[in-house]
Amino acid sequence: MADTEIPNLNGKWKMYKAENLEKLLEARGLNYLMRKVASKASPTEDITQDGNKITIVITMPMKTIENHFVIGEIHDRVDPDGHKYEVFPVWEGCKLVVTLTPKVEGKGNKQVVSRELINDELVQVVKLKDVVCTRYFKKQ
Questions:
Q1: Are strands 84-92 and 75-78 parallel, antiparallel or unpaired?
Q2: Can you point out the beta strands (E) in 1-140?
Q3: Strand, helix or coil for residue 91
Q4: DSSP secondary structure letter of residue 20
Q5: 80/2: higher pLDDT
Q6: How many CB atoms lie within 10 A of CB 100?
Q7: Would you say the C-alpha torsion 27, 55, 78, 114 has a positive or negative sign?
Q8: Per-residue model confidence as pLDDT tens digits over 34-86
Q9: Rounded Cα–Cα distance for residues 28 and 45 (Å)
Q10: Can you tell me whether residue 114 is helix, strand or coil?
Q11: Separation CA 89–CA 9 (nearest Å)
Q12: Which end of the chain is more exposed for a tag (fewer CB within 10 A), N or C?
């Protein structure tokens, strides 16, 4: 990042609102019942930022997902459905942008997830295929 200060995303964040979440879950291939359950949940994201090292622990009613990465370095990740991704996190201005690219063609879809602070809230935008989902989190 050139002239922009890296934002402090540290903390526990609870989702209170989502736009277009059900369409995102459908694009991810979740069945109707799973989409309904997931769309009613209010997950938390516990973010730990230590220089370029970032850990994001996502806690949902049925599972917890832990992601570790270093800004600017490519990492391998397997999602809960078993799809293998190449993960590339970068700072774009004040946004943390993580691009997930499937390692096996036909197994998963490219996703771009950005997180930024807007008015003391964490705003997450997920782009998958032609679907854009925006989720809003308040610090706990």
A1: antiparallel
A2: 11-19, 44-50, 53-59, 64-70, 75-78, 84-92, 95-102, 111-118, 121-128, 131-139
A3: strand
A4: S
A5: 80
A6: 22
A7: positive
A8: 888 888 889 999 999 998 999 999 998 778 989 999 999 999 988 777 778 99
A9: 20
A10: strand
A11: 14
A12: C
For the chain, percent of residues with pLDDT exceeding 90? 66
Q: CA angle, 3 as apex, 9 and 67 as ends, to 5°?
A: 30
Single-letter residue type at 26: E
Q: Evaluate whether 22 touches 34 at the Cβ level (below 8 Å).
A: no
- 86 and 74 Cβ atoms separated by less than 8 Å: yes
DSSP assignments along 38-70, one per residue = HHH---EEEEEEETTEEEEEEE-SS-EEEEEEE
Q: Which two tokens stand for residue 55?
A: 């850990």
Q: Which two tokens stand for residue 24?
A: 């995102």
Phi, psi for residue 27 in degrees, rounded to 5 = -65, -30
Residue 12 and residue 120: Cα distance in Å, rounded? 13
Mean pLDDT over 116-139 rounds to: 96
Residues in the chain, total = 140
- Name which of 34, 87, 83 is nearest 63 in CA terms: 34
Q: Side chain identity at 44, as an amino acid letter?
A: T
